[in-house]
């Protein structure tokens, strides 16, 4: 950072600039390496001017306010009456959000306060790095600062002798994600601020899969939807990136009967924070939305997930042609056999299907075209033709592999 400071930091009035005349330079002192070094090292006093050369007095004042936020969060300056550490974080993020030109300034300030930190408070340094991790999750920097900032973080993260090298590595990952995905969009919750402040960088977030299956995934501040899809797909033994792209993550608001598909570049904790702020009851669900790759039957969880996603649509009549005027013999055979498999998929032994139950095993668009007794007779006839030892998983696999693929993918 010394090189960056020499090129772009504000110089004191009594220090000569490169463009000064010879006469002016003789009257002023040269800016020494010690002067520059002091500008990039921790200070226990608030700054009276911005570190960078800014274009207005307003920006200079905001830079001073930002520095006070950093000092208060790190414990090196007293909080204002009624102020919390979370308030300090919010104020700093709002300054960066509203004044893009100050993002470089804030990064330089945090680097300064985490370099050669000699605070009397034992937790000042680690708090500074944790604040660093929050800011890198939200904001990028200019192309001018970018190489210097990445170089600084790489050096800190790779030095295992430093107690905070792990947090520096988190900052490095966060910043890379921010440049790739644009940074977090919603203010993190008070609980998230408290968790990060105490060194907890992961949230055990629950994700749902069709069929009642659930998976807890350690979710970081910068985890995006795409990463969760990849992790859940690995649980289903889906390792091909192109096949993983056929899945999406959505949130479900059960009370309001709303489902929203999420973009791959959305931040998980942004989604959760927004919904929780609105006091919505929700859950996150993996769903297959594209059907290019063929169904595979090599994983029990995969079979269950595909089965329980497809069956509701099949029963609603969404997977077959519009209601036909008549039912062909071949079609009756197919839906009766599928009905038998659906019956077996719900139990591990063959039992007769009653007329009432038969009506729940067929698409709603055709179920009224025959009586319950007629459907039950056809389904029970098909049951007699199926291996008596077939279990529910095998029935679900047969359902997917033999007949429903024809309806769904043809």
TrEMBL record:
Residues 42-197 form the MyTH4 domain. Transmembrane segments: none annotated. CDD domains: FERM_B-lobe (cd14473). InterPro entries: Band_41_domain (IPR019749), FERM_central (IPR019748), FERM_domain (IPR000299), MyTH4_dom (IPR000857), MyTH4_dom_sf (IPR038185), Unconventional_Myosin_ATPase (IPR051567). It comes from the Eukaryota. It is found in: Cytoplasm. This is MyTH4 domain-containing protein. Keywords: Actin-binding, Cytoplasm, Repeat. GO terms for molecular function: actin binding. Signal peptide: none annotated. Gene3D superfamilies: MyTH4 domain, Phosphatidylinositol 3-kinase Catalytic Subunit, Chain A, domain 1. Belongs to the TRAFAC class myosin-kinesin ATPase superfamily. Myosin family. It comes from Dracunculus medinensis (Guinea worm). GO terms for cellular component: cytoskeleton. Its main location: cytoplasm. Residues 202-410 form the FERM domain.
């Amino acid at each position: 950072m010394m090189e960056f400071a020499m090129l772009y930091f504000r110089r004191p009035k009594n220090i000569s600039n490169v463009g000064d005349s010879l006469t002016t330079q003789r009257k002023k002192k040269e800016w020494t390496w010690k002067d520059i070094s002091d500008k990039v090292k921790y200070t226990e006093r608030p700054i009276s001017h911005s570190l960078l050369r800014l274009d207005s007095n307003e920006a200079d004042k905001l830079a001073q306010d930002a520095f006070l936020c950093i000092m208060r969060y790190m414990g090196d300056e007293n909080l204002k009456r009624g102020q919390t550490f979370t308030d300090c974080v919010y104020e700093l993020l709002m300054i960066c959000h509203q004044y893009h030109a100050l993002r470089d300034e804030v990064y330089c300030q945090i680097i300064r306060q985490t370099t050669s930190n000699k605070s009397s408070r034992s937790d000042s340094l680690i708090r500074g790095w944790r604040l660093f991790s929050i800011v890198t999750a939200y904001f990028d920097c200019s192309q001018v600062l970018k190489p210097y900032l990445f170089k600084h973080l790489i050096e800190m993260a790779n030095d295992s002798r430093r107690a905070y090298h792990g947090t520096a590595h988190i900052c490095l990952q966060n910043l890379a994600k921010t440049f790739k995905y644009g940074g977090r969009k919603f203010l993190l919750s008070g609980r998230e601020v408290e968790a990060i402040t105490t060194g907890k960088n992961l949230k055990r977030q629950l994700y749902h899969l069709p069929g009642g299956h659930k998976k807890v995934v350690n979710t970081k501040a910068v985890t995006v939807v795409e990463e969760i899809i990849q992790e859940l797909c690995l649980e289903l033994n889906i390792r091909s990136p192109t096949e993983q792209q056929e899945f999406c993550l959505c949130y479900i608001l059960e009370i309001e009967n709303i489902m929203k598909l999420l973009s791959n570049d959305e931040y998980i904790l942004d989604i959760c924070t927004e919904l929780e702020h609105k006091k919505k009851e929700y859950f996150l669900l993996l769903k297959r939305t594209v059907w290019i790759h063929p169904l595979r039957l090599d994983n029990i969880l995969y079979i269950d997930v595909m089965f329980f996603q497809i069956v509701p649509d099949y029963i609603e009549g969404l997977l077959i042609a519009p209601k036909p005027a008549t039912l062909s013999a071949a079609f009756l055979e197919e839906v009766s056999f599928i009905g038998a498999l659906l019956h077996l998929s719900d139990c591990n032994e063959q039992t007769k299907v009653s007329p009432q139950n038969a009506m729940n095993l067929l698409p709603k668009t055709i179920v009224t075209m025959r009586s319950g007794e007629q459907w039950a007779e056809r389904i029970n006839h098909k049951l007699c033709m199926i291996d008596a030892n077939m279990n529910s998983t095998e029935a679900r696999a047969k359902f997917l592999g033999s007949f429903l693929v024809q309806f769904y993918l043809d």
